[in-house]
Amino acid sequence: MNNLSMEEIRQNIQKVIIGKDEVIDLIMTALLAEGHVLLDDVPGLGKTLMAKAFARSLDCSFKRIQFTPDLQPTDITGMNYYNQKSGEFVFKAGPIMSNVVLADEINRAVPRTQSALLEAMEERQVTVDGVTYSLSEPFIVIATQNPVELEGTFPLPEAQLDRFLLKVRIGYPNLKEEVEILRRFKSRDPLKELKAVMTPEEIIELRQRVKKVYVEDELLVYISELVHATRSHAAIRLGVSPRGALALLKASSAYALIKGRDYVLPDDIKYLFPFIAEHRIILTDDAELRGISKGEIIKEIIEQVQVPVEEVS
């Protein structure tokens, strides 16, 4: 992806979202790496608005699923219904059959409903009544959740969390950004005016280019050492899985392409590792009792694992 194309996407989203270049780049990284994103932050910071602005910037089909405790798996995947006119069962596709799916407040649905996303996110297909339906490409799930409010929520199980390539926080705007938000939204909704600037065919082409991004063998070792460090750390009960290691490799390649390079740098891996690892590790009971954060441990691992010094040519 050339820098002009990436800047066009960024500028388009920033007609709605003030600042947040990092979040935009990370969501685009997930899209090109064929992964999914979990936006995890307190209410009111624009998680849903970010997902909508991103979806509208792509000339793709978009569906929003509002997760609630009474949401059923068939409300996501679709279902077969009897058509009296034709005298046969007909499949009615659910909202998962879209290119971009916003799973809003995903942790408000019961685990059985949450698990309806697993097959779609991992295998790009859904199975209803024994029949498998392939999803259209490109396909990405952008999920949001509120980490503060616990009443009426169901924490995502490890198997579900592992399907998300990245876990990202939006963060509060600074003072200048907040003033601009008030100015921009006081009399109109810029989201309604947003136009698409990238087609599905362009996204698929960029995904193929990601696979050709060069990665030195030393960097493969570096990724493996970071992942293995999470499995041997005294404060971690469950470390990053091999799927997580592959996620770091794919994300680093996509991020390099977004930054205008056809090769991965060690800094790409270091930068992305916290977004890949935090939602994949589980701390020991002792570490949690002592108030140690996952972020502190990940930072410690990054500092301890030796970075390859040989320059990538």
TrEMBL record:
<dbReference type="InterPro" id="IPR050764">
    <property type="entry name" value="CbbQ/NirQ/NorQ/GpvN"/>
</dbReference>
<protein>
    <recommendedName>
        <fullName>Magnesium chelatase</fullName>
    </recommendedName>
</protein>
<keyword id="KW-0547">Nucleotide-binding</keyword>
<dbReference type="InterPro" id="IPR011703">
    <property type="entry name" value="ATPase_AAA-3"/>
</dbReference>
<dbReference type="Pfam" id="PF17863">
    <property type="entry name" value="AAA_lid_2"/>
</dbReference>
<dbReference type="Pfam" id="PF07726">
    <property type="entry name" value="AAA_3"/>
</dbReference>
<dbReference type="InterPro" id="IPR041628">
    <property type="entry name" value="ChlI/MoxR_AAA_lid"/>
</dbReference>
<dbReference type="GO" id="GO:0005524">
    <property type="term" value="F:ATP binding"/>
</dbReference>
<dbReference type="InterPro" id="IPR027417">
    <property type="entry name" value="P-loop_NTPase"/>
</dbReference>
<comment type="similarity">
    <text>Belongs to the MoxR family.</text>
</comment>
<dbReference type="GO" id="GO:0016887">
    <property type="term" value="F:ATP hydrolysis activity"/>
</dbReference>
<feature type="domain" description="ATPase AAA-3">
    <location>
        <begin position="36"/>
        <end position="166"/>
    </location>
</feature>
<keyword id="KW-0067">ATP-binding</keyword>
<feature type="domain" description="ChlI/MoxR AAA lid">
    <location>
        <begin position="229"/>
        <end position="301"/>
    </location>
</feature>
